[in-house]
Amino acid sequence: MKKSSLFFVLLCLFQISKLDFCLAGSVHMVNNNGHERHRFISVTDFGAVCDGKTDDTQAFLKAWEAVCNGFSNKSFLVPLGKTCLLKPLTFAGPCTSSSITFVIRGNIVAPGYTWNVGNFPAWISFDSINGLVVKGGGVKGGGTLDSRGSVWWGSEHAQDKESPTVSPFSRSLHYPRNHIGLTGSKNISISGLNLTAPGDSPNTDGIDISRCIGVDIRDSVISTGDDCIAINSGSSYINITGLFCGPGHGISVGSLGRNGEFASVEEVRVKNCTLSNTMNGVRIKTYQNGLGYARKISFEDIRMVDSKNPIIIEQNYLNRGKIEEVSFENSNYQNRGGKNRFYKTESGNGRGVRVSDVRYSRIYGSSASDDAVTFNCNADLGCEDIVMDHVDIVSAKAGHAVSASCKNVRGSYFSSPVSCIKKH
After folding, report:
1. Angstrom distance (rounded) from CA 323 to CA 419
2. What pLDDT, in 10s, does the model give residues 66-100?
3. In this structure, is the dihedral angle defined by the CA atoms of residues 38, 105, 14 and 193, taken in order, positive or negative?
4. CB atoms inside a 10 Å sphere around CB 23
5. CA torsion angle for 34, 40, 44, 48 (degrees, to 10)?
6. Nearest to residue 179, comparing CAs of 159, 160, 193?
Protein backbone atom coordinates (compact mmCIF):
# COMPACT_ATOMS: atom_id res chain seq x y z
CA MET A 1 0.00 0.00 0.00
CA LYS A 2 1.23 3.43 -0.79
CA LYS A 3 1.21 5.89 2.03
CA SER A 4 0.08 9.48 2.06
CA SER A 5 2.91 11.68 3.25
CA LEU A 6 3.59 15.34 3.12
CA PHE A 7 6.55 17.55 3.66
CA PHE A 8 5.69 21.19 3.96
CA VAL A 9 6.39 24.72 5.13
CA LEU A 10 3.10 26.34 6.04
CA LEU A 11 2.44 29.83 7.38
CA CYS A 12 -1.15 30.50 8.44
CA LEU A 13 -2.27 33.84 9.95
CA PHE A 14 -5.67 34.11 11.62
CA GLN A 15 -7.33 37.21 13.03
CA ILE A 16 -7.65 36.39 16.74
CA SER A 17 -7.38 38.14 20.09
CA LYS A 18 -4.42 37.58 22.40
CA LEU A 19 -4.59 36.37 25.99
CA ASP A 20 -2.43 37.04 29.06
CA PHE A 21 1.11 35.68 29.06
CA CYS A 22 2.28 32.64 30.99
CA LEU A 23 5.18 30.23 30.63
CA ALA A 24 5.47 26.46 30.90
CA GLY A 25 7.78 23.75 29.67
CA SER A 26 11.47 23.57 28.94
CA VAL A 27 13.62 25.29 26.32
CA HIS A 28 16.54 23.84 24.37
CA MET A 29 19.17 25.38 22.14
CA VAL A 30 20.11 23.63 18.91
CA ASN A 31 22.09 24.62 15.86
CA ASN A 32 20.05 25.13 12.69
CA ASN A 33 22.09 24.76 9.47
CA GLY A 34 25.10 26.28 11.23
CA HIS A 35 23.71 29.81 10.89
CA GLU A 36 20.96 30.51 13.42
CA ARG A 37 20.13 29.21 16.88
CA HIS A 38 16.51 28.60 17.78
CA ARG A 39 14.80 27.67 21.00
CA PHE A 40 12.92 24.39 20.77
CA ILE A 41 10.45 22.56 22.97
CA SER A 42 10.65 18.88 22.09
CA VAL A 43 7.74 16.47 22.44
CA THR A 44 10.12 13.97 24.04
CA ASP A 45 10.51 16.35 27.00
CA PHE A 46 6.84 15.77 27.77
CA GLY A 47 6.86 12.01 27.65
CA ALA A 48 6.55 11.21 23.94
CA VAL A 49 8.06 7.76 23.31
CA CYS A 50 7.94 8.06 19.50
CA ASP A 51 8.54 4.40 18.74
CA GLY A 52 5.74 4.26 16.15
CA LYS A 53 3.60 2.07 18.44
CA THR A 54 2.96 4.02 21.64
CA ASP A 55 0.22 6.67 21.67
CA ASP A 56 2.02 10.02 21.96
CA THR A 57 -1.09 12.24 21.69
CA GLN A 58 -1.09 13.57 25.26
CA ALA A 59 2.62 14.35 25.17
CA PHE A 60 2.10 16.40 22.00
CA LEU A 61 -0.75 18.34 23.59
CA LYS A 62 1.34 19.11 26.68
CA ALA A 63 4.25 20.29 24.54
CA TRP A 64 1.83 22.43 22.52
CA GLU A 65 0.46 24.05 25.66
CA ALA A 66 3.98 24.96 26.72
CA VAL A 67 4.73 26.57 23.35
CA CYS A 68 1.34 28.21 22.93
CA ASN A 69 1.39 29.83 26.36
CA GLY A 70 5.05 30.85 26.32
CA PHE A 71 6.40 34.38 26.89
CA SER A 72 8.53 34.43 23.76
CA ASN A 73 8.56 32.85 20.33
CA LYS A 74 9.59 29.21 20.52
CA SER A 75 9.62 26.20 18.22
CA PHE A 76 7.70 22.98 18.73
CA LEU A 77 9.96 20.08 17.73
CA VAL A 78 9.35 16.54 16.50
CA PRO A 79 12.95 15.28 16.67
CA LEU A 80 14.84 13.67 13.83
CA GLY A 81 14.89 9.87 13.89
CA LYS A 82 11.64 9.58 15.86
CA THR A 83 8.30 8.13 14.70
CA CYS A 84 5.41 9.42 16.78
CA LEU A 85 1.92 7.88 16.75
CA LEU A 86 -0.95 10.36 17.08
CA LYS A 87 -4.68 9.86 17.44
CA PRO A 88 -6.94 12.68 16.11
CA LEU A 89 -6.12 15.94 17.89
CA THR A 90 -6.34 19.72 17.58
CA PHE A 91 -3.58 22.19 18.33
CA ALA A 92 -5.79 25.03 19.55
CA GLY A 93 -5.25 28.70 20.15
CA PRO A 94 -5.38 31.54 20.74
CA CYS A 95 -1.80 31.58 21.96
CA THR A 96 0.10 34.17 23.95
CA SER A 97 3.17 33.65 21.77
CA SER A 98 3.16 36.07 18.86
CA SER A 99 4.65 33.44 16.55
CA ILE A 100 4.98 29.66 16.81
CA THR A 101 7.08 27.41 14.60
CA PHE A 102 6.05 23.75 14.40
CA VAL A 103 9.09 21.78 13.20
CA ILE A 104 8.67 18.20 11.95
CA ARG A 105 12.09 16.60 11.57
CA GLY A 106 10.96 13.11 12.50
CA ASN A 107 7.83 11.23 11.45
CA ILE A 108 4.20 11.39 12.54
CA VAL A 109 1.86 8.49 11.80
CA ALA A 110 -1.90 8.04 12.19
CA PRO A 111 -3.52 5.02 13.83
CA GLY A 112 -3.87 2.04 11.54
CA TYR A 113 -7.66 2.00 11.87
CA THR A 114 -10.69 4.14 10.98
CA TRP A 115 -12.60 6.24 13.51
CA ASN A 116 -15.86 8.16 13.86
CA VAL A 117 -15.38 11.12 11.55
CA GLY A 118 -18.41 12.86 13.05
CA ASN A 119 -16.46 13.26 16.29
CA PHE A 120 -13.04 13.77 14.71
CA PRO A 121 -13.33 15.16 11.14
CA ALA A 122 -9.59 15.75 10.93
CA TRP A 123 -6.58 13.74 11.96
CA ILE A 124 -4.47 16.81 12.78
CA SER A 125 -5.83 20.35 12.86
CA PHE A 126 -4.67 23.81 13.89
CA ASP A 127 -7.34 26.24 15.08
CA SER A 128 -7.37 29.97 15.91
CA ILE A 129 -3.62 30.51 15.92
CA ASN A 130 -1.87 33.73 14.95
CA GLY A 131 1.56 33.51 13.30
CA LEU A 132 1.85 29.75 12.89
CA VAL A 133 4.73 28.34 10.84
CA VAL A 134 4.81 24.59 10.20
CA LYS A 135 8.07 23.31 8.75
CA GLY A 136 9.20 20.02 7.30
CA GLY A 137 12.10 19.01 5.13
CA GLY A 138 10.44 20.01 1.86
CA VAL A 139 11.00 18.09 -1.36
CA LYS A 140 14.56 17.30 -0.22
CA GLY A 141 13.25 15.14 2.61
CA GLY A 142 13.17 15.25 6.38
CA GLY A 143 9.90 14.94 8.27
CA THR A 144 6.80 13.04 7.18
CA LEU A 145 3.14 12.79 8.03
CA ASP A 146 1.71 9.37 7.15
CA SER A 147 -2.08 9.44 7.38
CA ARG A 148 -2.41 5.77 6.40
CA GLY A 149 -5.11 6.67 3.91
CA SER A 150 -5.36 3.15 2.52
CA VAL A 151 -7.29 1.98 5.59
CA TRP A 152 -9.99 4.51 4.67
CA TRP A 153 -10.02 3.85 0.93
CA GLY A 154 -10.63 0.16 1.55
CA SER A 155 -13.32 0.69 4.20
CA GLU A 156 -17.03 1.38 4.10
CA HIS A 157 -16.10 5.10 4.06
CA ALA A 158 -14.43 4.87 0.66
CA GLN A 159 -17.46 5.81 -1.40
CA ASP A 160 -18.91 8.51 0.85
CA LYS A 161 -17.59 11.66 2.45
CA GLU A 162 -16.94 10.11 5.86
CA SER A 163 -13.18 10.20 5.69
CA PRO A 164 -10.95 12.70 7.46
CA THR A 165 -8.61 15.26 6.02
CA VAL A 166 -4.97 15.18 7.05
CA SER A 167 -4.48 18.71 8.28
CA PRO A 168 -7.04 21.50 7.83
CA PHE A 169 -5.62 24.90 8.76
CA SER A 170 -9.01 26.50 9.19
CA ARG A 171 -11.92 27.11 11.53
CA SER A 172 -14.26 24.81 9.64
CA LEU A 173 -13.94 21.70 7.53
CA HIS A 174 -15.77 21.10 4.27
CA TYR A 175 -13.63 18.57 2.45
CA PRO A 176 -13.37 15.40 4.57
CA ARG A 177 -11.07 13.52 2.22
CA ASN A 178 -8.63 16.14 1.03
CA HIS A 179 -5.12 16.37 2.40
CA ILE A 180 -5.05 20.05 3.34
CA GLY A 181 -8.06 22.33 3.66
CA LEU A 182 -7.61 26.09 3.95
CA THR A 183 -10.82 27.87 4.93
CA GLY A 184 -11.62 31.37 6.11
CA SER A 185 -7.95 32.30 6.55
CA LYS A 186 -5.61 35.11 5.54
CA ASN A 187 -1.97 35.40 4.49
CA ILE A 188 -1.03 31.76 4.11
CA SER A 189 2.32 30.68 2.70
CA ILE A 190 3.04 27.06 1.73
CA SER A 191 6.27 25.77 0.26
CA GLY A 192 8.33 22.60 0.12
CA LEU A 193 5.21 20.43 0.12
CA ASN A 194 5.54 16.84 -1.09
CA LEU A 195 2.18 15.11 -0.94
CA THR A 196 1.45 11.72 -2.43
CA ALA A 197 -1.49 9.34 -2.71
CA PRO A 198 -2.29 6.66 -5.31
CA GLY A 199 -3.68 8.03 -8.57
CA ASP A 200 -6.85 5.97 -8.14
CA SER A 201 -7.48 6.95 -4.50
CA PRO A 202 -10.97 8.50 -4.16
CA ASN A 203 -11.37 12.26 -3.75
CA THR A 204 -7.89 12.85 -2.41
CA ASP A 205 -7.54 16.52 -3.35
CA GLY A 206 -4.15 17.95 -2.51
CA ILE A 207 -5.07 21.45 -1.29
CA ASP A 208 -8.59 22.87 -1.20
CA ILE A 209 -8.87 26.65 -0.73
CA SER A 210 -12.14 28.31 0.34
CA ARG A 211 -12.83 31.84 1.59
CA CYS A 212 -9.14 32.66 1.85
CA ILE A 213 -7.40 35.94 1.08
CA GLY A 214 -3.70 35.86 0.29
CA VAL A 215 -2.46 32.31 -0.30
CA ASP A 216 1.02 31.64 -1.67
CA ILE A 217 1.91 28.08 -2.70
CA ARG A 218 5.31 27.41 -4.22
CA ASP A 219 8.02 24.86 -4.97
CA SER A 220 5.94 21.79 -4.16
CA VAL A 221 5.00 18.36 -5.50
CA ILE A 222 1.40 17.08 -5.35
CA SER A 223 0.57 13.63 -6.70
CA THR A 224 -2.94 12.51 -5.76
CA GLY A 225 -6.16 10.97 -7.04
CA ASP A 226 -8.07 14.25 -7.51
CA ASP A 227 -7.38 17.97 -7.96
CA CYS A 228 -3.85 18.93 -7.03
CA ILE A 229 -5.22 22.34 -6.03
CA ALA A 230 -8.86 23.46 -6.03
CA ILE A 231 -9.66 27.15 -5.58
CA ASN A 232 -13.19 27.63 -4.33
CA SER A 233 -15.58 30.50 -3.66
CA GLY A 234 -14.59 33.50 -1.59
CA SER A 235 -10.90 33.20 -2.44
CA SER A 236 -8.70 35.98 -3.81
CA TYR A 237 -5.05 36.86 -4.27
CA ILE A 238 -3.97 33.26 -4.77
CA ASN A 239 -0.45 32.65 -6.13
CA ILE A 240 0.76 29.20 -7.19
CA THR A 241 4.37 28.99 -8.38
CA GLY A 242 6.74 26.13 -9.08
CA LEU A 243 4.22 23.33 -8.56
CA PHE A 244 4.65 19.84 -10.01
CA CYS A 245 1.23 18.21 -10.33
CA GLY A 246 0.64 14.63 -11.39
CA PRO A 247 -1.04 12.29 -11.30
CA GLY A 248 -4.30 13.97 -10.40
CA HIS A 249 -6.98 16.17 -11.92
CA GLY A 250 -4.88 19.29 -12.39
CA ILE A 251 -5.37 22.80 -11.02
CA SER A 252 -9.00 23.92 -10.82
CA VAL A 253 -10.86 27.13 -10.13
CA GLY A 254 -14.22 25.90 -8.90
CA SER A 255 -16.64 24.41 -9.21
CA LEU A 256 -18.48 27.66 -8.48
CA GLY A 257 -22.16 28.48 -8.01
CA ARG A 258 -23.49 25.11 -6.96
CA ASN A 259 -27.21 25.04 -6.02
CA GLY A 260 -27.63 28.55 -7.39
CA GLU A 261 -25.27 30.06 -4.83
CA PHE A 262 -23.29 33.27 -5.29
CA ALA A 263 -19.59 32.54 -5.79
CA SER A 264 -16.52 34.70 -6.30
CA VAL A 265 -12.88 34.06 -7.15
CA GLU A 266 -10.44 36.71 -8.33
CA GLU A 267 -6.78 37.66 -8.53
CA VAL A 268 -5.41 34.17 -9.14
CA ARG A 269 -1.96 33.64 -10.67
CA VAL A 270 -0.57 30.21 -11.59
CA LYS A 271 3.00 30.37 -12.86
CA ASN A 272 5.98 28.10 -13.68
CA CYS A 273 4.15 24.83 -13.09
CA THR A 274 4.35 21.35 -14.64
CA LEU A 275 1.30 19.11 -15.02
CA SER A 276 2.23 15.55 -15.91
CA ASN A 277 -0.21 12.78 -16.83
CA THR A 278 -3.11 14.65 -15.28
CA MET A 279 -6.75 14.16 -16.16
CA ASN A 280 -7.06 17.92 -16.66
CA GLY A 281 -4.60 20.74 -16.93
CA VAL A 282 -5.78 24.19 -15.86
CA ARG A 283 -9.54 24.38 -15.48
CA ILE A 284 -12.28 26.84 -14.58
CA LYS A 285 -15.69 25.30 -13.92
CA THR A 286 -18.95 26.98 -12.93
CA TYR A 287 -22.53 25.80 -12.53
CA GLN A 288 -24.90 27.25 -15.11
CA ASN A 289 -27.53 28.15 -12.50
CA GLY A 290 -25.19 29.91 -10.10
CA LEU A 291 -24.34 33.58 -9.60
CA GLY A 292 -21.17 35.57 -9.11
CA TYR A 293 -17.87 35.81 -10.95
CA ALA A 294 -14.43 34.32 -11.63
CA ARG A 295 -12.09 37.01 -12.92
CA LYS A 296 -8.53 38.30 -13.08
CA ILE A 297 -7.00 34.86 -13.46
CA SER A 298 -3.73 34.07 -15.22
CA PHE A 299 -1.91 30.86 -16.14
CA GLU A 300 1.69 31.55 -17.18
CA ASP A 301 4.66 29.39 -18.18
CA ILE A 302 2.82 26.10 -17.76
CA ARG A 303 4.28 22.85 -19.10
CA MET A 304 1.86 20.03 -19.96
CA VAL A 305 3.10 16.44 -20.19
CA ASP A 306 0.45 14.10 -21.61
CA SER A 307 -2.41 15.92 -19.88
CA LYS A 308 -5.75 14.67 -21.17
CA ASN A 309 -7.51 18.05 -21.25
CA PRO A 310 -4.88 20.78 -20.94
CA ILE A 311 -7.00 23.97 -21.00
CA ILE A 312 -10.69 24.10 -20.04
CA ILE A 313 -13.33 26.66 -19.20
CA GLU A 314 -16.64 24.92 -18.46
CA GLN A 315 -19.35 27.45 -17.67
CA ASN A 316 -22.19 24.94 -17.88
CA TYR A 317 -21.06 22.48 -15.27
CA LEU A 318 -23.78 20.09 -14.15
CA ASN A 319 -23.89 17.73 -11.22
CA ARG A 320 -25.10 14.41 -12.47
CA GLY A 321 -23.64 12.51 -9.57
CA LYS A 322 -21.42 10.38 -11.77
CA ILE A 323 -17.64 10.28 -11.85
CA GLU A 324 -16.24 9.32 -15.22
CA GLU A 325 -12.68 8.89 -16.38
CA VAL A 326 -12.39 12.26 -18.08
CA SER A 327 -13.02 15.77 -16.90
CA PHE A 328 -16.37 16.48 -18.52
CA GLU A 329 -18.25 13.86 -16.51
CA ASN A 330 -20.56 16.40 -14.86
CA SER A 331 -20.85 18.73 -17.81
CA ASN A 332 -23.20 19.35 -20.67
CA TYR A 333 -20.13 19.15 -22.87
CA GLN A 334 -19.45 15.80 -24.46
CA ASN A 335 -16.67 14.51 -26.64
CA ARG A 336 -17.58 11.96 -29.27
CA GLY A 337 -15.41 10.65 -32.02
CA GLY A 338 -12.67 13.10 -31.15
CA LYS A 339 -14.87 16.08 -32.10
CA ASN A 340 -16.19 18.66 -29.70
CA ARG A 341 -19.96 18.82 -29.56
CA PHE A 342 -21.87 21.29 -27.46
CA TYR A 343 -25.43 20.86 -26.35
CA LYS A 344 -27.94 23.62 -25.87
CA THR A 345 -28.14 24.83 -22.31
CA GLU A 346 -30.77 26.76 -20.43
CA SER A 347 -30.84 30.38 -21.55
CA GLY A 348 -32.87 33.46 -20.87
CA ASN A 349 -32.81 33.21 -17.07
CA GLY A 350 -29.99 35.71 -16.65
CA ARG A 351 -28.11 33.43 -14.26
CA GLY A 352 -24.59 32.14 -14.30
CA VAL A 353 -21.13 32.76 -12.87
CA ARG A 354 -19.38 35.33 -15.03
CA VAL A 355 -15.93 34.35 -16.28
CA SER A 356 -13.75 37.22 -17.47
CA ASP A 357 -10.21 38.56 -17.70
CA VAL A 358 -8.48 35.18 -17.98
CA ARG A 359 -5.03 35.01 -19.58
CA TYR A 360 -3.11 31.96 -20.83
CA SER A 361 0.53 32.84 -21.51
CA ARG A 362 3.30 30.52 -22.68
CA ILE A 363 1.41 27.26 -22.25
CA TYR A 364 3.24 24.43 -23.99
CA GLY A 365 3.76 20.68 -24.01
CA SER A 366 1.67 17.65 -25.01
CA SER A 367 -1.95 16.57 -24.79
CA ALA A 368 -3.00 12.95 -24.30
CA SER A 369 -6.31 13.70 -26.06
CA ASP A 370 -7.10 15.50 -29.30
CA ASP A 371 -8.77 18.32 -27.35
CA ALA A 372 -6.06 20.72 -26.26
CA VAL A 373 -8.34 23.69 -25.58
CA THR A 374 -12.05 23.66 -24.72
CA PHE A 375 -14.03 26.79 -23.86
CA ASN A 376 -17.69 25.93 -23.29
CA CYS A 377 -19.28 29.17 -22.13
CA ASN A 378 -22.85 30.00 -21.24
CA ALA A 379 -25.08 31.27 -24.05
CA ASP A 380 -26.34 34.17 -21.93
CA LEU A 381 -23.14 35.36 -20.27
CA GLY A 382 -20.31 34.08 -22.42
CA CYS A 383 -16.69 34.30 -21.34
CA GLU A 384 -15.11 37.73 -21.83
CA ASP A 385 -11.57 39.02 -22.19
CA ILE A 386 -10.03 35.59 -22.64
CA VAL A 387 -6.46 35.98 -23.93
CA MET A 388 -4.26 33.26 -25.41
CA ASP A 389 -0.64 34.34 -25.73
CA HIS A 390 1.89 31.81 -27.07
CA VAL A 391 -0.18 28.69 -26.44
CA ASP A 392 1.52 25.79 -28.22
CA ILE A 393 0.33 22.30 -27.31
CA VAL A 394 0.94 19.25 -29.51
CA SER A 395 -0.44 15.74 -29.45
CA ALA A 396 1.31 13.11 -27.36
CA LYS A 397 0.34 10.62 -30.08
CA ALA A 398 2.52 10.41 -33.16
CA GLY A 399 0.71 11.57 -36.27
CA HIS A 400 -2.21 13.13 -34.37
CA ALA A 401 -3.22 16.77 -34.37
CA VAL A 402 -4.86 18.65 -31.53
CA SER A 403 -7.84 20.97 -31.76
CA ALA A 404 -9.35 23.93 -29.95
CA SER A 405 -13.08 24.45 -29.48
CA CYS A 406 -14.88 27.59 -28.42
CA LYS A 407 -18.46 28.47 -27.66
CA ASN A 408 -19.59 31.97 -26.64
CA VAL A 409 -16.04 33.25 -26.07
CA ARG A 410 -14.79 36.79 -26.60
CA GLY A 411 -11.12 37.63 -26.44
CA SER A 412 -7.90 37.65 -28.42
CA TYR A 413 -4.87 35.52 -29.20
CA PHE A 414 -1.21 36.12 -29.98
CA SER A 415 1.26 33.68 -31.55
CA SER A 416 -0.87 30.71 -30.52
CA PRO A 417 -0.99 27.82 -32.98
CA VAL A 418 -3.76 26.25 -30.91
CA SER A 419 -6.58 28.76 -30.61
CA CYS A 420 -10.23 29.13 -31.52
CA ILE A 421 -10.86 32.63 -30.20
CA LYS A 422 -12.05 35.17 -32.72
CA LYS A 423 -10.71 38.66 -32.36
CA HIS A 424 -13.28 41.27 -31.43
Report:
1. 29
2. 999 875 667 899 999 999 999 988 888 888 877 78
3. positive
4. 13
5. -120
6. 193
| Model pLDDT for residues 273-319, shown as the tens digit of each residue | 999 999 999 999 999 889 999 999 999 999 999 999 999 999 988 74
Q: How far is CA 7 from CA 56, 72, 109, in A?
A: 20, 26, 13
The pairing of beta strand 282-287 with beta strand 311-317: parallel
Q: Same CATH topology for 1-201 and 227-424? A: yes
> Can you give the pLDDT at residue 117?
66
**CATH class of the region 1-201:** mainly beta
Kindly report, residue by residue over 63-74, the tens digit of the pLDDT. 999 999 875 667
**pLDDT tens, position by position, 338-352:** 333 333 344 456 689
| pTM as predicted | 0.73
**CATH of 227-424 among 2.160.20.10, 2.40.10.340, 3.30.450.40, 1.10.10.10:** 2.160.20.10
Query: For the chain, which residues make up each domain, given as ranges?
Result: 1-201, 227-424
Which of 125, 127, 241 is closest to 191 using CA atoms?
241
Q: Is residue 122 within 8 Å of 173, Cβ to Cβ?
A: yes
**Among all residues, which ones are annotated catalytic?**
249
* Closest to 388 (Cα-Cα) out of 369, 372, 400: 372
Strands (E), 325-368: 333-336, 339-342, 352-367
For the chain, give the number of residues: 424
163 with 120: CB under 8 angstroms?
no
Selected residue with higher pLDDT from 283 and 22: 283
